[in-house]
Amino acid sequence: MEKADTPLEEVRGRIARACKPARREPEEITLIAVSKTHPAEAILPLLEQGQRVFGENRVQEAQAKWPALRTRFPDVELHLIGQLQSNKAEDAVALFDCIHALDRPSLVKALASAMNKLGKRVPCFAQVNVGEEEQKGGCSIADLSALLAQSREAGIPVAGLMCIPPAGMEPAPFFALLAKLAADNGLLGLSMGMSGDYETAVMLGATHVRVGTALFGERPAQT
Ligand SMILES: *Cc1c(COP(=O)(O)O)cnc(C)c1O
């Protein structure tokens, strides 16, 4: 009997297949394995299969899990994908290689001063509230240009834009919108697509997909 694909092989295969109609190469897409809530024992098999880019949404949880794993796998790249409180900016800059949560002027200030203090420039994605949802994090479309200008002036390397489309809606129009906003602002990075919609995101230009459940299985509800 043929050996079944691991979840990692399955996701990589799907990314490669989604690239074809879009005439893209799989190497253009960074798969971020979202390991939030999962313990080191669940992360190790992916590391052993060669996955090196991981996403966490809580600074404290990442601080508890990753330093030990990183001593064994020093080339791990860690992305912060969740909302970030300004008072955690310094810890985030110290630990992470990329931050996908830039969404308001106060956070730009906090991250810039943390980067200056630690002498470390961490690339950031600006999160855009593409569905204009009141309860959701992310910068409004109207405020985006100003936020990007402020970030550049403050010396924050802006890698691109990130979004989470509204739940229960067809995501494609929101991915297309994010791609247009990035192009309008001269940005190349597009962090979009999760377990349910990463293939669509790849077809619409994602450079970074953030996949948790499809790699690790269901998560316990976060409190
Ligand atoms: C949890 C999370 C993901 C991963 O979601 P899945 O549906 O499990 O793939 C992606 N992006 C963000 C911002 C998240 O918080």
TrEMBL record:
Q: Which InterPro entries match?
A: Ala_racemase_N, PLP-binding_barrel, PyrdxlP_homeostasis
CDD domains on file: PLPDE_III_YBL036c_like
**Record-linked Pfam families:** Ala_racemase_N
Q: List each copy of the Alanine racemase N-terminal domain by range.
A: 30-220
Keywords, in A-Z order: Pyridoxal phosphate
Keyword Phosphoprotein attributed: no
Q: Function of this protein?
A: Pyridoxal 5'-phosphate (PLP)-binding protein, which is involved in PLP homeostasis.
Name assigned to this protein: Pyridoxal phosphate homeostasis protein
